[in-house]
Design brief:
elongated
Length: 118
């Protein structure tokens, strides 16, 4: 069971990587309310939509690398019994990974704000 829970910490970075690759290579063509980076600023016009979705993919690729690095380091520490693995630590790690993911919203919105002000 403990081994399964340790591998669970790689789910968020993996999803961030795969989604980032998809968003960067194949961003949604049309503004829609189902898929893509959807905020008021990004849905303002087609130019903002394209920029936001492609930039979101780029940011998620970068953040997935950071998240993978931190997660791998923690995995190594768990493997060599330097850190004891518990359910509470799993929750803290996943919460930290999700925080990194949500950080992308601030980064992307800041970029859109700067573009909008030009």
């Amino acid at each position: 069971m403990e081994l399964f829970m340790i591998y669970v910490i790689f789910i968020v970075p993996l999803l961030l990587l795969l989604t980032g690759l998809f968003m960067y290579k194949y961003p949604p063509n049309k503004i829609n309310r189902i898929i893509g980076y959807r905020t008021c600023k990004s849905m303002k016009n087609k130019e903002m939509w394209d920029l936001a979705n492609r930039y979101c993919g780029k940011v998620w690729l970068s953040l997935s690398q950071i998240s993978f690095l931190i997660t791998t380091l923690l995995f190594i520490l768990f493997h060599f019994k330097i850190i004891t693995f518990t359910e509470n630590i799993l929750l803290i790690i996943v919460f930290g990974q999700l925080t990194i993911m949500l950080l992308s919203v601030l980064i992307i919105e800041h970029k859109l704000k700067n573009i909008q002000n030009l």
